[in-house]
Amino acid sequence: MALTRWPWGRLTGFGLLVLACGFAQAQSRFIVVASTTSTEQSGLFAHLLPAFRRASGIDVRVVALGTGQALDMGRRGDADVVFVHDPAAEEKFLAEGFGVKRFPVMYNDFVIVGPKSDPAGAKGRDVVAGLQKVAARGAPFISRGDKSGTHAAELRYWKAAGVEAPEARVAGYKACGCGMGPALNIASSSHAYALADRGTWLSFRNRGPLAVLVEGDRRLVNQYGVMVVNPARHPHVKTELAQTFVDWLISDAGQSAIATYTIGGEPLFFPNAKTAP
Questions:
Q1: Is 84 found in the same domain as 44?
Q2: Which stretches are transmembrane (predicted)?
Q3: Could you tell me if 226 and 83 are in contact, meaning their C-beta atoms sit under 8 angstroms apart?
Q4: Which pairing describes strands 262-263 and 99-115: parallel, antiparallel, or unpaired?
Q5: DSSP code of 8?
Q6: How far apart are CA 263 and CA 271, in angstroms?
Q7: Which tens digits make up the pLDDT trace of 93-152?
Q8: Any idea what the CATH number is for the domain that residue 191 is in?
Q9: Are 188 and 198 in contact (CB under 8 A)?
Q10: What is 207-223 written as a DSSP string?
Q11: Quick one: which of 103, 130, 66 has its CA closest to 272?
């Protein structure tokens, strides 16, 4: 059988332009999502994105940062979508005109982890009482200190516990300026307390002496939201592709994909696009 050869020598300039445009179009079917380290380090994106790619043909390139840094990426126009977990900061982002609309997607909760021996006596359901005991004992506490959603929540809990500046008032307090996984590694190696999102905790393998000590307080709910970056601020934003991603996340298919992500049979996130207040 004779092989068919493409007549490259006869290909016109117009033909080359068509091929080049087609290649460029294929290459451009991706979006950049600025998100949190918790969605990345928990393994959620590794579970979700292949399903979204199959459904849409769109690739997603994730930049995992603290929520504050992720929102700053959106402000600079360096991302098409932000997917984060600090509702107050998200509303500010919208009020400043950097986002189009915020959509709730899912939630889990924060927990305080610490040494199983619990030298501060923090164990219980009350996050404020737990932190007060950590402060009173001067026990080691590792903070992310990175302006993430988790860090912002931690500072709110310290404030509710009557501690405005824990880095100055809690003897064992140390900020690592790092993501959730590294912060847990430091806490594990130094027998320290830390605030963690449950998703990252469940996927964390280097627990050492750590265990969950404070959980179940309604104040520990950790809500996630997603926003398309406003093309009126940054015209290069891939609005249509970005909105396709958002629409999929809050659709039945996306919400089901979130619900089915488990570790050891335990769900890491609970979809609530339809039920969030």
A1: yes
A2: none
A3: yes
A4: unpaired
A5: G
A6: 16
A7: 999 999 999 999 999 999 999 999 999 999 999 999 999 999 999 999 999 999 999 999
A8: 3.40.190.10
A9: no
A10: -TTEEEEE---GGGEEE
A11: 103
Note whether residue 6 is domain-resident.
no
pLDDT in tens, 41-89: 899 999 999 999 999 999 999 999 999 999 999 999 999 999 999 999 9
> For residue 262, is pLDDT > 50?
yes
The number of folded domains in the chain is 2
For the range 238-245, what are the long-range contacts, defined as Cβ-Cβ under 8 Å and sequence gap of 24 or more? Answer: 238/28, 238/31, 238/80, 239/80, 239/100, 241/29, 241/30, 241/31, 241/58, 241/80, 242/31, 242/80, 242/81, 244/56, 244/58, 245/31, 245/33, 245/52, 245/56, 245/58, 245/60, 245/81
CA distance 106 to 276: 8
Q: Tell me the angle at which helices 149-160 and 67-76 cross, rounded to the nearest 10 degrees.
A: 130
Do residues 116 and 103 both lie within one domain? no
DSSP count for the chain of H helices, then E strands: 12, 12
pLDDT of residue 229: 98
Residue 1 included in any domain: no
Structural domain of 168 = 109-220
Report DSSP state, residue 179: -
The burial of 13, by beta-carbon neighbours within 10 Å (0-12 exposed, 13-18 middle, 19 or more buried), is given as: exposed
- Phi first, then psi: give them for residue 259, nearest 5 degrees: -65, -30
Q: Is residue 202 part of a domain?
A: yes
Alpha helix ranges (H) inside the chain: 13-27, 37-41, 44-56, 67-76, 87-95, 127-137, 149-160, 166-169, 180-190, 198-203, 239-250, 252-259
The residue among 190, 205, 220 that closes a domain is: 220
